[in-house]
Amino acid sequence: MKESMGNPLHLKSLNHISLVCKSVEESMNFYQDILGFAPIRRPGSFDFNGAWLFGYGIGIHLLQSEDPESLPKKKEINPKDNHISFQ
């Protein structure tokens, strides 16, 4: 195992994750209604569809895919796929 380099970037915590979605609206419903995240204001200068949510000290940025049909169709949960985990 590599020797620890300390914290040369002075990182303190994770600020947010950003997820590209087939449907920002459907994803917002999941994070709000199921997980209890609250929508927060996005910068007005952004010229693309998306939403920001916050809860439990975690920020989630949802970005609308420019080509939703090109995203992989997920039929089952794959523990080896990209994911986030809540405790």
From TrEMBL:
Q: Which Pfam families does the UniProt record give?
A: Glyoxalase
Q: Which InterPro entries match?
A: Glyas_Bleomycin-R_OHBP_Dase (IPR029068), Glyas_Fos-R_dOase_dom (IPR004360), VOC_core (IPR037523)
Please indicate which superkingdom the organism of origin belongs to: Eukaryota
Q: Cite the VOC domain residue spans from the record.
A: 13-87
Q: What is this protein called?
A: VOC domain-containing protein
In which organism is this protein found? Gossypium raimondii
Organism taxonomic ancestry:
Eukaryota, Viridiplantae, Streptophyta, Embryophyta, Tracheophyta
